[in-house]
Amino acid sequence: MNQPQILITSAREDLRTEPRIIRVVLIAMAVTFLTVFVVLPLVVVFAQAFSKGVFAYFSALSDPEALSAIKLTLMVAAISVGLNLVFGVIAAWAIAKFDFRGKTFLISLIDLPFSVSPVISGLVFVLLFGAQGFWGPWLQANDVHILFAVPGIALATIFVTFPFVARALIPLMQEQGTQEEEAAISLGASGLQTFFRVTLPNIKWGVLYGVLLCNARAMGEFGAVSVVSGHIRGETNTMPLLVEILYNEYQFVAAFAIASLLAMLALITLVAKTILERHLDEGQLPGD
């Protein structure tokens, strides 16, 4: 063990001033809490999904209504992640690399979906695009459908998920500073060349981290989508909405089968998040 590792280990040991029994009790409480509120619900979801056998499970997933919900969820997630990726990278680049008037206000706008209830954000779109909304009469006159259709679901999902990519990149890009970009520009590189050859390689793990969180939230969004979807069977129900409908209709196996897909997404997201956080903690060098 080299000298820096010895110092780190010694510092960690110095911080452990509590008696061993207290540390054991705290760890046991944390493990118990996670077991009761995280592990057991996941076990129940999968147990209920397979309670009538594998055939019933896959039969529920292959139902046309379930396939429509899965397809719609994937499509909306692809749209929202793609647009939020572009917005998040541009916003983070502007905030971290440049000084301009209104920067604080822009950061506040990015954080707005974190402080607004998803149901309220859905109602905002109803006020804008509904029959009695601001643009409702014009949309009806031109036979344009926003609410109770894919565009409305996509807009609501984009709103509640757009902070994730930007918020994953802003602190990372601020920490990296602007020295490498300034060096590239001084050597004759254009703005786009600097971005694609210097900035983007430095933030690639942060981009993947933000996309991962954005995708997980997009697929699991319920509140905002529930307001704007109209719950049209086989057309505007995403996976979370279909779970609620099937459960209320006492189709428990089908409901938990769809829920198990969302649970598997959560587990995959957790594993990928851990891997990406390890890359971010290790630091990034150009060309990593």
Blueprint (SSEs and pairs):
Blueprint: H1 3-15, H2 20-49, H3 54-61, H4 64-97, H5 103-115, H6 118-129, H7 136-141, H8 150-161, H9 163-176, H10 179-186, H11 191-220, H12 223-229, H13 239-248, H14 252-282
Helix pairs in contact: 2-14, 3-14, 4-8, 4-9, 4-11, 6-8, 6-12, 8-11, 8-12, 9-11, 10-11, 11-14, 13-14
Distance between the termini: 26 Å
What Rg, in angstroms, do the CA atoms define?
A: 23 Å
Specify the overall morphology. Answer: globular
Question: What is the SS-derived class?
Answer: mainly alpha
Tell me what you see in this structure:
The protein is mainly α. The protein is built from 14 helices and no strands. The longest helix has 34 residues, at 64-97.
Write out key terms for the chains shown.
288 residues, mainly alpha, disordered C terminus
In short:
The chain is mainly alpha-helical and 288 residues long. The protein is 79% helix and 0% strand. The protein has 14 helices and no strands.
